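Subject: for your reference before the review

Hello V.,

The reviewers asked for a structural picture of the protein, and I figured it would be easier to keep everything in one thread rather than splitting it across files. Below is the amino acid sequence we used in the manuscript, unchanged from the supplementary table.
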Amino acid sequence: MRLIRWLKDRLFCDLAIDLGTANTLVYLKGKGIIVQEPSVVVINRKTGKMEAVGEQAKEMMGKTPASFLVVKPMRDGVIADFELTEKMLDFFIKKSTDYQGFLTRPRIVIGIPSGITQVEKRAVKDVAIRAKASEVYLLEHSVLAALGADLPVSDPDGSMIVDIGGGTTDIAVISLNGIVFSHSIRIAGHEMDEAIIQHLRKTHNLLIGESSAEKAKVQIGSAYPLDEPMTMKIKGRDLSEGIPKIAIINDQEVREALENIVSSIIDAIKYALERIPPELSADLIDRGIILTGGSALLKNLDKRISEETQLPVFITDDPLTTVVLGAGKMLDDLGRLKKMSMI
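And here is what came back from the structure prediction:
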């Protein structure tokens, strides 16, 4: 009996994957989240060999010799480099399935943005198949996020969830196990980082990298004035003299740098609110708006959205893992999974 159970555990391998622009998370059925690493790879220009993946690759950003190339194969929630995405996904799948020495190709559920095209959906599925998946199911980020946040998606009352990731912001109103309205914009965390880079270039004559911009966003970035002012040192290169330089920046100037991005996200939320049925609008007065995704952690973003929409706003317990946890729940209901899969 133990041998049969051992073989069964290894012959049937189900994975849920949040293949994100910034991070890739892998959930192994029965075990939980096995992989949570940046969607970054390092390639040897001469040999074409993949030298590093995930956290190790991210640590090399801006520091590699000319023979190495750091690449983010996902862009705006979709595949920008098919071959490298396949290699990265294959690496993460192998890392997950080697966890217990599985003997078969896994079945995989993957979360995707709601606004991508049929061609882009097909590309995601093809990459997963080429990365040794036996079956692939694609579901929208917003649906998976709602499941991961334990929202009552089967109720007739509406629930609004806003998933702000690295490359896209996905907004959906869900009722009776279906999406009543969805809207996606390709503006999110990466655009915030780029806005900080451009701001410091313009105001401090300082050139910084993506990692430094992300650090500034996380440490002192905000969407609404903070209770107490914050400052930080940031290192980069003086654009005039070409030498290393340290600048002191504060939360107000970072907030100003992020204003256009934050406003675009709020405008997208308002756009969704204007287009849902009035009966569901009434539900949101009580239920409010649920925020998830890594960029939802921007300080006081919930407060800013609440002020502009006049609705209560809540952030999920762990915004970074909500989508993959929702995908993991779908692994327990294969019939429902097949019915809801987008391709």
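For the response letter, the relevant points are probably these. The chain is about 40% helix and 25% strand. Residues 3-11 have pLDDT under 50 and may be disordered.

Happy to draft the paragraph if you're swamped.

O.
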